[in-house]
Amino acid sequence: MMTAFEMWSYLCSVMAGLMLAWPMLKRYFPPQLSMQLEAYALKAVGQVYPYVRIKFPEIAGQRLERCEAYTAIQNYLSASASAKAKWLKAESIKDSRSLVLSMDENDQVVDEFEGVKLWWSAGLDFSQRSLSPWSQSSEERRFYKLSFHRSHRDLVMGSYIEHVLEKGKAVAADNRQLKLFTNNPGSDSHYHKATKWSYTAFKHPATFDTLAMEPNKKTEIMSDLLKFQQGKEYYERIGKAWKRGYLLYGPPGTGKSTMIAAMANFLNYDVYDVELTTVKDNSEMRKLLIDTSEKAIVVIEDIDCSLDLTGQRKTKKQEKEDDEEKADPIKKMLKGGEESKESKVTLSGLLNFIDGLWSACRGERIIVFTTNFIEKLDPALIRRGRMDKHIKMSYCGFESFKLLARNYLGVESHPLFERVRRLLEETEMTPADVAENLMPKSDDEDEEACLEGLIKALEKAKEDARKKSEEEEEEEKAAAAEAEATAARAIAEEEGQRTLSEGEQENGRTGSASC
Ligand SMILES: Nc1ncnc2c1ncn2[C@@H]1O[C@H](COP(=O)(O)OP(=O)(O)OP(=O)(O)O)[C@@H](O)[C@H]1O
Questions:
Q1: Which of 13, 16, 172, 325 has a CA-to-CA distance to 191 between 20 and 30 Å?
Q2: 171 ligand 1 Cβ < 6 A
Q3: Are strands 47-54 and 62-63 parallel, antiparallel or unpaired?
Q4: Is 258 in the pocket of ligand 1 (CB under 6 A)?
Q5: Are 235 and 379 in contact (CB under 8 A)?
Q6: Ligand 1 contacts CB of residue 50 (under 6 A)
Q7: Does residue 389 contact residue 224 with C-beta atoms inside 8 Å?
Q8: Ligand 1 in contact with 80 (CB < 6 A)?
Q9: In whole angstroms, what is the distance from residue 73 CA to residue 109 CA?
Q10: Using CA positions, which residue lies closest to atom 27 of ligand 1?
Q11: How many beta carbons lie within 10 A of that of residue 123, not counting itself?
């Protein structure tokens, strides 16, 4: 039995223990403080007007960026791992995008930032608003309330809110639907058709996982892209525009377009596919660029075919037509209407497009050129610094084949793989052709049939290549023989001429002697 004194001293020691432990314990209790940050979504007459209001006494009523802030907080909370784990209901975890929407009134989400615990809660208010003496409108206010200990005010105001908004915006960017933009001639003006972007949802399924490519090369490209994406501060520090140029070159069907799609899905960037032939001139090109979003991949496919950028692209037919037009002004006049539709983007305009203006644009941008004939391009266009990374898209190797077999047939290995490996070393086939051969054409075709089909196609390609090289050899031999015969004829003719002129000279001398 405890005496009153013992009881009193026991209670005292418990109290003392609690007081000592309080600085640590208090982190685990939501504080009841007047300091709150509220993010509202006002819903009046069917419209939602979200905004964030900070209710600290010293800055009461101040709003952070409207709408974006509310959505950013919503996204941030939906992505918060601790929120998922601790507060949200099991069924709402299935759909991460609607997590926060499913937060009930007064539900709480606990967050931790730099070792400090913060509490978010969702709330809903209704209020009646008098529009006139006869009508009233009810206003629905959804809000998030942030509670934290008074001592962390500087941290919250200094960096936490910024962190939430930044992370929330990043989550939104990750979740957003990518877009594929193309430039179409509009009809703003009667005489000069202005080019504008139009877009559709970008839903290309290609990813780096499905892209057949030598694994080391693929890893190198992926880390290059990541480094670029995370390089905001680095680019600022070195004073360079946050842009990177990629030149993808290689034969048709080696995956250049597929690579662009994989890049867009990997980085979550919109794709702007520039059709150069519909861009009127350099200034329209600049306008187009300014109109691109901050996270963009600007693509010019088949750059060698798009315009006369290289100075080598005029065919004989075009040259003949140009000469004819020079000689015949009426023909030129008739063709005038057509000519005005042609693009007048020049090489220097394109270089400016890549270098000059980008420095003035905010946000990260990637520009990709593709070509089947790298040797046709002007070196100025593809020098490092403009096209920072040159990526050769090659014929299918064994590693690429294995990836395609896994994707198309779901097989990791097979006894026929060895034959495929040897054939791929002996002949060239594009990943597009390999993929086509691997695709089952009916329900009856199993992986063995597909692999055998591929082997047949590879053997045929090898045979065709052998025949072609034999024919080329024959042609070369015939051309060499022809050249030799022509040279021999020329020598014989020359000799004949020389003998003739020597004979004439001789005759002349005999004639003058006899005179
Ligand atoms: N490396 C690859 N990995 C996976 N699939 C590929 C690859 N290359 C080609 N393919 C397949 O072949 C099809 C055509 O490839 P893609 O259009 O990317 O080639 P390309 O090099 O851009 O050709 P082009 O120069 O004619 O535009 C793609 O839809 C894809 O299915």
A1: 325
A2: no
A3: antiparallel
A4: yes
A5: no
A6: no
A7: yes
A8: no
A9: 12
A10: 252
A11: 16
Dist. CA 431 → ligand 1 center (Å): 7
- How far is it, in rounded angstroms, from Cα 439 to Cα 314? 40
Q: State the distance between the two ends of the chain, measured CA to CA, in whole angstroms.
A: 169
Give the containing element (helix H, strand E) for 271. Answer: strand 270-273
Separation between Cα atoms, residue 175 and residue 99, nearest integer Å: 13
Half-sphere exposure of 324 (CA within 13 A, CB side): 9
Pocket residue to mutate for ligand 1, from 209, 221, 254, most atoms within 8 A of Cβ: 254
Alpha helices in 43-160 (DSSP H): 68-79, 81-86, 90-93, 153-155
Q: Closest ligand 1 atom, CA of 407?
A: 4
- Strand-pair partners of 183: 197
Count of C-beta atoms within a 10 Å radius of residue 244 = 22
Phi-psi region of 383 (alpha: psi -120 to 50; beta: other; left: phi over 0): beta
Which pairs count as long-range contacts for 193-198, CB under 8 Å and 24+ apart, including other chains? 193/280, 194/280, 194/284, 195/278, 195/279, 195/280, 195/284, 195/287, 195/288, 196/291, 197/272, 197/288, 197/291, 197/292
| Ligand 1 center from residue 257 Cα (angstroms) | 6
**Residue ranges covered by each domain of the chain:** 26-175, 192-313+341-392, 398-464
CA distances from 305 to 283, 368, 449 (A): 21, 15, 39
Task: Show the DSSP H helices in 359-446 as ranges.
Answer: 379-382, 398-409, 417-426, 431-438
Q: Looking at this predicted complex, what is its ipTM?
A: 0.97
Q: Residue 264 in contact with residue 296, Cβ under 8 Å?
A: no
Is the pTM higher than 0.80? The answer reads no
Q: Is 372 in the pocket of ligand 1 (CB under 6 A)?
A: yes
396 lines ligand 1 (CB under 6 A): no
Structure-token pair, residue 450 = 């597909």
Q: In order along the chain (515 residues), what is the average pLDDT of each group of 10 residues? A: 82 86 66 51 48 43 50 75 42 36 61 85 65 55 72 80 82 79 64 67 92 93 93 86 91 95 93 87 82 88 73 46 54 46 71 66 84 88 85 95 94 94 94 94 88 94 92 91 90 83 71 52
Where does 192-313+341-392 sit in CATH, by number? 3.40.50.300
The two structure tokens encoding residue 37: 């940050």
Whole-number Å distance between alpha carbons of 507 and 347:
65
